[in-house]
Design brief:
The chain has 248 residues and is of the alpha/beta class. It has nine helices and twelve strands. The strands form three sheets. It has a five-stranded mixed sheet. Strands 6-7-8-10-9 form a five-stranded mixed sheet, with no helix packed on it. A hairpin with a 4-residue loop joins strand 11 and strand 12. The longest helix has 24 residues.
Length: 248
């Protein structure tokens, strides 16, 4: 039996990510994997989107400023460097975890791997990793790491992915960005999880403003709720599947 700790889209909320890792027993105060992780009793899976704060307020908080100016190259470069520092810390944690911590590729992570894709959150452009828009390119070592990230994780029939259970929901191309069902499938056609052969599915990408959504009848959990300090924990083996929402 294992405990799965599933963490939703990060979007540069690294302080909440680390709080979640410590609160669920996955990390210690020194930002290192716990014994339970090293021994494989805890598996941590994050659905990605490590970079790009959700909005201007998120960028301001990242920089410790009252206001974020997306037209300021100086602020863009500071935002890039702050995220690089934290992503490298997370990378070290993953490397030390003996394969028991998995970061999945999110569409925002994919967007900063060349060729770059311009993304925005409403009026806030995510330009900090685009030198042509005043930002600073993601360093080559992190480009290589992002490019190597898996798109799915599965164990005991439970799948975790960034946006959904099908290959089309795991490929961040023009169709993905143009298809409105990317953000609605989980309530319009939640049977996709079972149709694709999974016992249960855990996904992010779509913000859950009221907190993590669990539909046990359909076998799906939508976990993009780190803004509320929520993560999903599940006890898993061949016969057991117990899920709970944890607030950190």
């Amino acid at each position: 039996m294992i405990k799965l700790v599933a963490i939703g889209d990060v979007h540069a909320r690294f302080e909440v990510l680390w709080r979640a890792l410590r609160a669920t027993g996955a990390a210690n105060a020194a930002y290192a994997p716990s014994d339970a992780v090293l021994e494989g009793r805890i598996e941590v899976v994050c659905v990605g989107d490590l970079v790009h704060p959700k909005n201007a307020a998120g960028y301001a908080a990242l920089l410790g400023e009252a206001r974020f100016d997306p037209s300021s190259p100086a602020q863009l470069r500071r935002a890039a460097r702050a995220q690089v520092r934290e992503v490298r810390r997370l990378h070290r944690f993953v490397e030390a975890a003996r394969g028991h911590v998995t970061i999945l590729l999110g569409n925002h992570d994919d967007a900063v791997v060349p060729p770059l894709r311009a993304l925005s959150s409403g009026p806030t452009p995510h330009a900090e990793f685009d030198p042509d828009r005043g930002g600073e390119a993601l360093p080559d070592d992190l480009v290589a790491w992002f490019a190597s990230l898996p798109r799915t994780w599965s164990r005991y029939g439970v799948q975790v992915a960034h946006a959904g259970p099908t290959p089309g929901l795991q490929t961040f191309d023009d169709f993905f960005y143009g298809d409105p069902s990317v953000k609605t499938w989980w309530y319009e056609t939640p049977d996709l999880v079972r149709q694709t052969g999974h016992r249960f599915g855990v996904y992010g990408h779509t913000v859950m403003r009221d907190g993590i959504h669990v539909d046990e009848a359909a076998g799906v959990a939508m976990i993009d709720a780190l803004h509320r300090g929520e993560v999903l924990e599940a006890m898993l083996d061949e016969d057991r599947l117990d899920v709970r929402v944890t607030t950190v």
